[in-house]
Design goal:
By secondary structure, this protein is an alpha/beta fold. The protein is built from eight helices and seven strands, in the order αααβαβαβαβαβαββ. Strands 3-2-1-4-5-7-6 form a seven-stranded mixed beta sheet, with helices on both faces. The relative contact order is 0.14.
Length: 224
């Protein structure tokens, strides 16, 4: 099953698989109003086709962080920093979120948003290869969030377990890939990479995994 894109729908609503039509509209209408910075980021993402998780997924991310009392988050693929702000709000004043993105312009825009949102002191920015930055980390994180290029998903999985604390969460976006994961014999390399990632994540003894069918699919894996 593939999701159809609504006319003029924000890009963070492209992938709704189980909440299309009126139910989709209801879901988003129930979300609490975001502050002006987040609303501006949503508008910018829609106008410039910048991928962000959107407010429904971001609310889940923030709730998960609060549930495990997360204080450290490593984000792989942060774009303009939309989800970064939600993480930063969750970890509190003494928490730390590591932002990574390969685009210097994205990073500069994100830096401005962080300052305006009042979370700049909680965020460390890295511009470059997110996987390389993660591979250099010596500490264990409470949460690692994966939203890099889909071809790299299998590589990410190999890096995560040693850098995540027991009881921590490894969370990955886009694991249903607009329903293409359900196609028979997909030829697209990114779809194949996501299928490989999903299979290996569920098979990994280090993790207890569930895929939440919200928007484009969110994999939540608890480290045992």
């Amino acid at each position: 099953m593939t999701a159809s894109k609504k006319k003029n729908a924000p890009n963070w609503r492209h992938y709704d698989l189980t909440t299309a039509g009126p139910v989709d509209d209801y879901l988003y209408s129930m979300l609490p109003k975001r502050d002006n910075v987040l609303l501006e980021m949503e508008e910018y993402a829609t106008e410039h086709d910048v991928p962000i998780v959107g407010p429904a997924v971001a609310s889940v991310l923030q709730q998960l962080a609060l549930m495990i009392n997360a204080r450290t988050v490593f984000e792989l693929g942060s774009a303009i920093g939309y989800s970064t702000i939600w993480w930063a709000q969750a970890v509190g004043e003494n928490g730390r979120v590591i932002y990574t993105d390969g685009d210097a312009q994205n990073a500069e825009r994100a830096r401005s948003y962080f300052a305006r949102a009042g979370v700049a002191n909680r965020v460390t920015l890295h511009t470059g290869d997110a996987l390389e930055v993660l591979s250099e980390q010596k500490q264990e994180f409470d949460i690692i969030f994966n939203d890099v290029d889909k071809d790299d998903y299998p590589r990410v999985l190999r890096l995560v377990a040693p850098r995540l604390r027991k009881g921590g969460l490894f969370i990955t976006d886009n694991v249903l890939w607009s329903g293409r994961v359900a196609e028979k014999n997909p030829k697209d390399a990114r779809t194949q990479a996501i299928l490989e990632f999903n299979r290996k994540l569920y098979d990994a003894k280090e993790f207890f995994t569930t895929i939440l069918p919200i928007r484009d699919g969110l994999a939540v894996a608890l480290k045992r």
